[in-house]
Write a structure and sequence with these properties.
Length: about 270
Amino acid sequence: MGRLEGRSILITGAAQGMGKAIAMRAAREGAAAITLADIQAEKGQISAREVAELGARTRFVLTDLRSKEAICDMVAEAADLGGGLDVLVNNAGITDDGLTGGPQTLDSLTEEQWDDLMDINVKAMWRAARAAVPWLRKSERNPAIVNAASVASTFAYPGIPGYSVAKGAVSMLTQMMAADYAPFGIRCNAYAPGAIATPMLMHSIESAEDPAEMTRLTSGPHLIKRLGDPDEAATLACFLASAEASFMTGAIIRVDGGTAAWRGNS
């Protein structure tokens, strides 16, 4: 039996990158029903088919995480597919340059852009948890919420101020969820990746004037001198979702290649 055997799981930002990797690993680890939510319709449908080939009941739900109604519909769809909900993975997020097309400062971001960064990276997690908790309370399979934090939860990163502030909030949000939902038997933890070779990051690297130098700078803070693989983050996320982490809640676990151990850049 896999460590996620029989679970009903909802994963946001699952069309590609870490979200897709989490969905694929969850299927390999025995999840019975996996709902993939994303704003990218075509990629989401393709990813859902690939997950279904691994044996899980699968559904893709087109979701704009800036919309309260869309988030409520997303959770309802996941509960319908799985006959309930055991795990919510709040993986979706967007960086300042991903939203605007280039690096930003606190002064260059418009208020609308700032609001979008907060809505997608923080408020959507809160809304999804609020919608999911009534279902998670009914689960008898060690229910869990797993949030995507970041090394940017701890360190300021030039060029992505909105994302860094939002991920700092995610760290505290995770701990507050752990405290508030513990009486219901719901655990809440977060994984905090370093630079992971997701399509979003690779697009930024490949569009740089010197992609090789950009790769060196991006992975420079890592003690393990390479970019992380999405499945390396997915392995941690699925562990936190499983009963193997049954005595863990309120934890922010780094999968950052050693970045926070020294915070150098070479």
